[in-house]
Amino acid sequence: MKSLWKHLFKLACLLSALIQRSQQACTTAQAPFPKIVGGILDATTINQIDYNQVTDYLAAVGCSYDQGVRGDIATSTIKPIVIAYQQNSYQWGKVFTSFTHDCFNGVKINRLGTKLVIANADNSRMLIVIDINNGNVLTATAFIASAVYDQNRRNLLLLDEGTIIMGDEMKLIKVTPPSISAIQFTVLMHSTIALQSDFAQTYFHVFAYTSSLCMITLQDMASFSRIFQYQTQCASTSPIQLAKTFQTCSYETSPPIDVIVFQEGTRFFRIQSQYSTSTYTTSTMHDPAVPSLLGKGLHCANNDLVYSLMWGSYSGAINSIFVVIVNFSLYTITYTRYLQQTAGNVYHGNIFAVNKFYLSGQDQTIFKATSASFSTRSLKTNGIIYSSMLTCQQIEQQTCPVVALTVNGFTFSATSNDYTFSTFTVTDLSSSLPTTSNIAFSQFEGQYLADCSYQLPQAPHDYTALSSAQASNELIYAIEHTSLTIPITAFTATKASLSIADPIFTYSLNSFIGPAGGVTITAATGDIVIPAVSVLGSSTYYVEIEGKLQNCQTINFLFTLTGQPNTAPKFKVLGSVLAVIPIEQGQFLTYLLPSIVDPDSGQTISTILIDGGSSAYPTFIDFTNSQHIAIQIQPTTSNTVGLYSVVVRLEDGIGYTNYALNIIVQAPLITDLSAFQNYFITNSGPPIFSSELQKIEIITGNTRTYTLPAYFDPDLDDNITLSIDLGEASQFSTFEKAKEMFTFNPLKDREYKDFYEISIKLADDNQNQKYTKVKLSVFIRKEDQKIRSPEKDYDQTAADLYEKQDEERIRQTTTKQLRFNLAKPTKDEQIRLYFQQHAYVLKLVAEKLNETNFELTLNHKKTVNFHFEFIMIQYGYVLLQMQFDNPEKLSLYEETLDLIQLRVNRSLLIQSTQTNYTILKETRAECYIPNQYSPNEVEQMQKMKEAASIAHIAMIPASIIVNFFLQIVMNLIWGMLNDLSFLINLTMISITIPGITSTFMSIVLQFIQLDILQTDKWLIPSFPKEKDEEGNFKEDEGLNDYFEQQGFQSMYTFKNLGSTLIFSFLLIALFFTYLIFKMLAKRGSYAKKVQSYLERKLFWNSTCRFIIQQFQPLLISALINLFQLKFVSVVTLMSSLFTIATIVVLVVFLWKMISAIKFQTNEGLQTQWTPLIEGVNMQSLIGKYWTIITLVKWAILSLTLVFLKDYPTFQLSVVWYLLLVSQILIIKGRPYSSQIENKLSIFNDIMASLYLYGLYALSEPMGRNESKEQCGLALLSLVLATIVVNVIKVLVQSVMLINFKRLIAKLSPSDRVVQLKPPPAEQSQPDQTIATTSMSVLYDDVPQMLTHNHSDKQQTVAIIPEKVTIHTDYLFRREVRY
């Protein structure tokens, strides 16, 4: 009984823990906003803030009198502070202890969001640059300023390359720390109010004030030359007054086109700039009522739409925060009050969306609601940051009626007030940076739980991968409706474990900028309900829906809701005729209706048939089912031959669109079927799916399943076969045939393409078989891409919603939709445009393609010039040659790759004799691009390739001559190539190197591998080409981009080996020749001599030399081919067989070399295995096996490069250990007999290690590297230096080793016997093997034998290796004395 109670008690505890966990899923914590900064002892202020959307950092600067906050004991003093928040949470805070009685009044985060610059208020100005991630001071520059820094002025710029620009009354100060040389630009009588730069930091905008005039000057960033300058009327009477209400923003349509907007209160000024044509258009708008509102922040959403953060009094609300929407196209302004009344001072803030902002100030009292407030812990003011997000304040949005603005009430006047240039010296404080200490954040973080609470999820979270993805963020409602419900796509989340309940979202209205009660949200589904459409009318509103899970995790989505007159639904076809369908009497046909396009949301669309007066409907024409997605046509012999017309109507309850469907009934070709009844087989149509396939979108690191919809065949007795081809999606997808269900599981740490397609085929078993092919589209997104910002250009038209629809759905209509995608971008501004169509269709497409019908944009903003090249159309794609501005700056950092998008701006019709094809307007394709070469680098690479091509041709006869006359020099060259190969192969590590380093090393690698026969120009093109299902040639691709850059551009050995393949077959041919002459040796002396010669060369000196020299290309090519062993064509079959044979031969030969060293004598090694022991220290065990060790080192490197290609960090680690072991072995074992060789070998390994450290600096775990271009240049310099040192060594050795007398004698017909003088009698040493004078003898084919004439008798004697002394061993490895 006790045991039972014990178990029941454990069970109760377990249930209690589970219940407690469920109850603790939501926790009450201090609300993230408003931020309150300050202690209980004295005042703390926040004077200025800045926010960066890229890294989600919010930075605030100010000062504090409070000792508790500062964490010091100083009294009656004030010290400056800086604080950083990320993702709404406190990250770090610093007190600058070396300052006294000073504040920070200025802060600016750089564009990349990695650093910030701060400025103190005092005239003794200090500009301090800080690492935004940890608060560490990077640089500090001091100088004397003209005026105190005004906290209301945005007078700081921090460029990504490190330059700081500061406005100082009538001056602009430009300094690049740690330089002590600064430049100042002065314009008289104009006080600088604000600075701003364009996105590319090519230009910057200077806003200044003088005598009731606002002046804007656009300056070139590099030269500071003036592009334009305008003045316009201001209401402010002083620069101080203007600064309190002045804000700026800009929007870039493309690099040469942008819009600059600035405001003074409710006056708004706009300049539209077209830099390429020097065209500048100005306009102004202002509220004639002149409300008492001050500008506190400005955001340009697009060319015509501006959001302004304002503070003041309006429409009965005093001291309140407003978000103002200014529309330059409609000339309207809409005021919406946010949050609660403020009691203290309010300074400038940041607005970055229509309902998202931060606003700084200082206060003692904070209102949570109209009649509810709480006080800060201090009797004096605390710094405050208000926000519309995650706040304990009631938001209480109240949108006022739209106000019409007065247009162009003010004028712009072009002026030419030039800035004068001068230089001065500043103080760099790098050696004595300002001292800091950490803020005691516990004085204010978490101190207001009781007063300002918020329900937050408790970590660890129950759900991951929250997604609010929608088909479009733009919803359109028809104003003719009385009321309307618009469904949305349900939000999704993934359970962290199986024991957790399924995610259930509760939806609510987070924000609505529009009339009170204008919309409501259905809590269970998130549907947007418009109770009275007439209240909203024809206007645009913003609706943000919040979805909250059971554990309080939330995710939002912002919709743009626009009212407009109803648009009737339409089929996605050109014209008003669906199709003209010929059909014979007695036949049966199913016509699939095209997709329907309707921009209006929330409508139910009906498809109906109307008889055209010929009694065809419903006699032999009707819908196949209640869904009305297909029409069946089955005329009988009783239906008269002729034309029958029916009308297919689409209705949405308000309007309709009619389409003609014309059926031509024809007489059957065979009128008397009685004789063929036993043989006549019909097939009414192919099997089809009952509904469209979904578009799958999945975030990396998540798992998603998708079950195929039901499918049917018009011939009910036909069996249906389902075939699935996962294609490239097989790396993250599986298909369970029994459940007809896909499972997608893309790993978080792997790289994937943005888009994949899975082929699905439905086929019947009819003898006249018919089938349907469809594509399932799968989109892969990274986690940080899962929420689309409505502020960015992600607009989709109705056509985009159906972009990936299967062609078979409209295969019986008059047109077929062509789809395309972008892939395989290169570093020289090229990308491939693929059309998934047959080869003959692509030729028609090529004739229709015109650059004017397409628009190419960079990052959805900048227009990029391009042109089509059709040289590869037979491979299924067209080349786009792009023209970027500053291409070397693109995708410089892998975490922020630049994106290009190709958009069709005009529908194209391609006509053929069989089918008409369309490329619909607004069809788009996107692709991320790698870092690009600069024009100078492209020119340099072209010159290098041309020089390499000439060198390849010259090397063929040169190598033959050198090998014949100067074998020893050739050995030195081979040794040098082997020494360099390890370093050069490191470029195949999967890390992108900026600049031309990879290209240069690719050229060097060709020489190292003796790839001099240029097989890519004559051998590879001769191989038969494979074709895909569409009849296009298949273009081979390498293992990845890094292997392709180094010449391994295929997955097959035969294509990758190049010249090595020719050399391999020559060697194999020599072995066959040897076998033939061996069989003929008994029949003739000549055959015996040839057999002996080949035996001496092939077993094993020449073979060993070949294996060593070509070890790496052979092994790497074979390992790559293992990923794609196929036997479907001649090339794939031969490559696969050659791969297996290569691996076997390399392993066996390596074992044979080890056996030779282990068991053979030195004389035997010198005779048969010379390459194994050339120049090595045979007295050292490591030296004896050094060639084997080198081959093993190369093998490990090759295995690492190929099999760890997706894990560059592991590649770096393995290679680092490999180099470390190699260096230890060289130092300890001294493997070479020559000291210079040992030193050079350790030098090469050290240079490889330095190269590896350079790759570390460029790798992802090291974080953002702002000196990538410099790192690439450094790596190139390192490689060049290594090559130069090795070449100089070979040249010096060659000159010293060549016996020129012997060489001349060898070229002459004289006798080749070396004559030796007899030694003097007193020096004779009969106990030695040979007694002679000291005389140099050139190394020959059989180095251990020497022939000479002595005492009229020719003798051949052996040199005892132990008796040989090396003459100047660090230079003369091949020259011996005896």
Explain what this protein looks like in three dimensions:
This protein is of the alpha+beta class and 1378 residues long. The chain has 24 helices and 82 strands. The strands form 23 sheets. Strands 23, 24, 25, 26, 32 and 33 form a six-stranded antiparallel β-sheet that branches. The chain has a five-stranded antiparallel β-sheet with strand order 3-4-5-6-38. The chain has a five-stranded antiparallel β-sheet with strand order 7-8-9-10-37, with no helix packed on it. Helix 7 (967-985) packs antiparallel against helix 8 (997-1008) and helix 15 (1111-1121) crosses helix 16. It is globular. It starts with a helix and ends with a strand. 37% of the residues are buried. Mean pLDDT is 81; it is low at 13-24, 673-680, 786-814, 1310-1317 and 1319-1378. Residues 1-24 form the signal peptide. The chain crosses the membrane at residues 950-974, 986-1008, 1057-1077, 1098-1121, 1127-1151, 1185-1204, 1210-1228, 1240-1258, 1273-1292. Keywords: Membrane, Signal, Transmembrane, Transmembrane helix. It comes from Halteria grandinella. This is TRP C-terminal domain-containing protein.
Low-pLDDT segments = 13-24, 673-680, 786-814, 1310-1317, 1319-1378
Structural class, please?
alpha+beta
- Helices, by number, come to 24
Rg value: 40 Å
> Which shape, going by the Cα principal axes?
globular
Strand segment tally? 82
**Strand-residue proportion:** 25-35%
Give the mean pLDDT.
81
Helix percent band: 10-25%
* N- to C-terminal distance: 101 Å
Largest sheet: 6 strands, antiparallel
